[in-house]
Hints:
about 110 residues, mainly alpha, D-Maltodextrin-Binding Protein, domain 2
Amino acid sequence: MLLVEREKLRAALRSVVAAARLLLCALAIGVPGTACALEPLFFGVFPRWSPQATVRDFTPLARLMGKVLGREVQVDTDKDFESFMRRAKAGEFQLVHLNQLQYLQVSRAGRL
């Protein structure tokens, strides 16, 4: 059973990486070498697991995005769904990992 869950997680992370690559190709966030580029970007990740597991699992993707963008990307999450969505709707994250429904909710708040 654990092996099946691990494979599902790996498949999900591969999808996230592929989506992130497309996103990074479509976005220009800051210019390396400028004052703006010195500020870290916050990558909000929906809290499906514990905050520690979420940060651990998404840090490699954040590092890849930071390398491509030329600036630090920090993984951020929250303790529960309501807190995370409140922050996402408030625009606290420059990059965000959401499911389809959450995307619609945040975009309706005018933050995407």
